Structure formats: C-alpha cells, structure tokens
Amino acid sequence: MSAALIVLAALGGWEALVRAGLVDELILPAPTQVAEALWTDRDLLAPDLAVTTWEVVLGLAAAIAAGAALGIAMHVSPAAARALRPLVIGSQAVPVPVIAPLVVLVLGFGLAPKVLLVALVCFFPVAINLYDGLRDADADARKLLRSLDASRWQTLRMLELPSALPAAFTGVKVAAAVAVIGAVFAEWSGSDSGLGHALLTANGQLATARAFAATLLLFLLAVALYGAFALLERRVVDWTPRTAPGGP
Amino acid sequence: MRRLLPLLLIAALAGCGEKPEPTGSGSGRTEPFTVMLDYFPNADHAGIYAAQASGEYEKAGLEVKIQPPPDAAAPLKLLQAGRVDLAISYEPELLLARDKGAELVSVGALVQQPLTSLMSLGDKAITRPEQLAGKRVGTSGLSYQSAYLRTILDQAGVDPGSVKETNVGFKLTQAMLSGQVDATLGAFWNYEGVDLERRGRKPRILRMEDLGVPTYDELVFVAREEDLDVEGGSRLRRFLQATARGHQQLTERPDAAVDALLKADPGLDRGLQQAAVRATLRAFFPKDDEQPWGFQDPAAWAAYERWMRESDLLTQPPADRPPLTNEFLPGEGVDPGTSGLE
What we know:
Chain A has helices at about 1-20, 30-40, 40-75, 80-90, 95-105, 110-135, 140-145, 150-190, 195-205, 210-235. By secondary structure, chain A is mainly alpha-helical. Chain A folds into 2 domains: about 1-35; about 40-235, MetI-like (MetI-like fold). The longest helix of chain A has about 35 residues, at about 150-190. The radius of gyration of chain A is 22 Å and the shape is elongated. Chain B is α/β, with parallel strands linked by helices. Chain B folds into 2 domains: about 25-115 and about 215-335, Periplasmic binding protein-like II (D-Maltodextrin-Binding Protein, domain 2); about 115-210, 3-Layer(aba) Sandwich (D-Maltodextrin-Binding Protein, domain 2).
C-alpha cells in the first residue's frame, strides 16, 4: 500500500515538473504523455514487444543451459574451474558494442545474434550462482554420502544439485532481470524490429514519449520474467524452506 | 569450380550484351544484392525505398535487401568483409577507410552536398561562427567533425582554445535541448533541422560549405574495388540505374516514397519524413543539370581530400587508385565493345 503511494507521489511530482516547464518535454515527457504514447502507439509497440520477448526467452533458455553446464563442469573439475573462471568473469567486462559487430559478421542480422548476445549477458549469474551453490552443499550430508560409498555422480545428483537449486534460481532471476537489456543492446547492433529498435527510431526523431513507453514495456518485461521464475522457484524448491537472510 | 567457369563466362557475356539497356529482364532470375544503409531507414533513403517499392530493382534483375547497420562505423567494415554488396557511407568515412588501406571506392553520390551542419537553438543561437568563442560545442566524436570545427574557427578568427568540444554521441539534439551544449556540429540540416523546425524549436542552422569547409558528398554508395569487374560492374550499373529511377519517382510522387519508407519501419513519423524528403530533394541531384543522378565531381573530391590531408586526417600518401568512379551511373560508361562510339 505504502509502495503504491510512493510511486503515485513520484509520478505526481514528475508530472508537475514537466507541466511546469522545468524540464523540456522532448527530454523528459510527463507520465501522462508516456501513457498516451503507450495507447496511441500500441499497434506499433505490440509487435516490437513480441519480438523482444521472443529474443529474451530464447536467449535466457540458452543462457540457462550454457550456464548450468558451465557451473557443473567447473564444480566437477577444479582444473576446468581454474581455467574457465577468469574467462567467465572477464567475459562480463567486454562491452557489447565491441563484440556486436563481430557477432553480426558471423551470424548476420537475424534472430541468432540477438539470442547469442542475450545469452552472453545472462549466462554469468547462472553459472556462478550454481557453482557456488554446488560447493556449499551441507558438509555433514557430504560426509554421510561418502561413508555410504556414494560415487561422484551420486553425490552430485542426490545432494549437491538439489541443495544448489535455490542458489541456481537466484542466478536465473538475476539473469532474467538483465536479459532485457541484453536484448536491447543486441537490437542496437542491427535490427529492424523489437523494442530496442523502436527506441532507436523514436530517439532519432525526438519521439521521446514513445521512447519512454517502449522503456516502460522493457521494465514490465523484466519484472514479468523475474516474477515467472520466482513463481517457478516456489513450486520447484518447495521442499526446502528458504533460510531467512542472516543465517538459519 | 572448373565446371562452373563456362557458365560464369556465359553469364558474363550475356550481361555484356545487355549493358546498353541493362534491365536484366527476360532471364526471369534475380540476383541477390544487399545494400547496407548508413543509419536506420530515413528520408535520405526514400529514393532507394521508392525504387524497391515500384519494382525497379526486380526489373533490373536484382533482389535487393536493404539492411540497416549495426553501428555507424559498420557499413564499410562489413562491405570489406564481403557481408554486403554495397554500403552507404560518408565521403570522409570512405577516404579515412582508404587511408587505412581499404580497397573501396565510391560509385555514386546519394546526397550531393554536406548535410552536417552547425546547429543551435533559442535566443542565444549562433548566427555567425565568431559567436562560438567561449562556447561549448557538441559533436558525435568523429575526427572530421572536430576538424570541421577547427577549420570554421580558423576561418572566423576564433581562438580554438576558447571553444570546448564535447562528445555527446548521437544525442546531438538532446544535448542542445537540455542546454548541455550551446551548439552542435554533426546534426543534419535536412533531418534534425527539419524535425526541430516542425516542433517549433527554431533551430539556427549554418552549413559547412558556408563556413569554409570544402564541399563534399555527405552520403555515397561504396563498393569493393574488386567488384568493378564485368560481372560486378553490371550489378552496380543495374542497381544505380534503378536507384536513379527511384529518385525520379521521388520528385514526382514524394509521398509514395515515404509510404515505402514507412513500410520498412512503421515507427517513423510520416510528417517528419515527408518534410525531410522535400527538404532534401534538391540535394539528391547534382547542381549541374547536365550531369546524371549520382554524379560525383572529381575536382570537389580532390579539394576535400586535400583539406583532409591538411587537417591531418589522412596520413598515407594518396593512392593511385581514384576514390570514386562515375562509370556505373545512368548514361555513363560504355561497355567495352562500343567504347568510343558514343
């Protein structure tokens, strides 16, 4: 309730600021102007939303698959972990505009480069959280399994993977939140549709209200994806009550 | 490959026979041909979209794909890498690329004048370059924009140290509207200028060629030098002739061309594109009516290249290979067999 009030107050202040002429509406449109653009441009923005959503969903799926494989590989093989960790971390420092032309050169302008760039931005939180989660399995349970002569695979399957699930979900949720920005960057590197493309076109002709409307859709997309994974987490990890922050 | 060779030869020869009126029709087969734009589709490309919408490219035997670039620097790189057949770029960008060894050549001018301009807004707008003293000027951070500014200040007798240049990326208008900069150098008079005018923001526009910068062709069609052979030359010729017809249609029915443009990107503002097309119309054609559409003036190119060299933008000695050719323009160049007869 109080959150809604804060949002309303912020929107009201924003509206007043623009209406009073303190900010140029071509730089910052009022919330009502954004809402208006969202409505009048709905036929324009809806297909773009669909395109970007599809890129994000495919990219996230690829990131989760690749991130999970990488996290497990690094956990199972310390040599792999030593070799890959700097690369995995370093990959996050590479600015998308630097690699985008390369990706375009190899993959062209279709869906593939977008999915790859989204996956590139998203695999890191998945891999690192899963890797940490696998390591942090309960030490006593580990001892117990060893005393029962469990194989490496059995330990992984029966103990480590299930106990890493909450951490893995954290990674996936972070990935879901940043996936959208990955898709926008990918579209900025050559596209003819999608919300990122709509942003470029709108900014290029001072259609600022539409640019904000597209941004609002990106915002909602990120929130929806995060929410979907949070929901899924509650279903999948219902057997382990999440420990309260700050210890059990 | 060896088995293909006779076929290729036949195709090349067939191409030769058609050259005087190279429509390519009759064969019923169209060759794919990818053109990379300099920027997202806009009024500057209206003639190209008009040609495509009215089927001119198909009639010329080309299946043209019009591709917006990943970023402003990409078209020439992707052209060199062979990912596209033709790129729209800027005369200075081409000369810079050639200075770095790129074997690229301009085969036609899309826009015959500089579009880059010195722009400012409001009561304190810059009406004379002398007023730039002590001001902050936004550019997109391109080396030649800085050089334009230096030349302008030099001509106006303004101490360059008193002017602060700020790289605002491609948010030139936004930087002006928010008051971050007093003026910008880099916005196009036919696009940003028209947009601001339509929004009642009264932009003050000073053009490069009026401020002492040598004139140049803002937008040019760039091809690989290796593609100037018989087969590639035939494609270029057919593309440019069809594009010339597209620009002819543009003068007759400018709004139909804007329809085609909006089909390519529905996000474009129809009113702005129509106004921008009208503003640009004259710049799509050479000043000299005797010259064909797409004509590039070698003397103007030489003067501009000299200026780039004096401005330390070019570091290598001039190449033997000319940076432009008018050979593939409508009515220009003759096929080898009839050379000298015209």
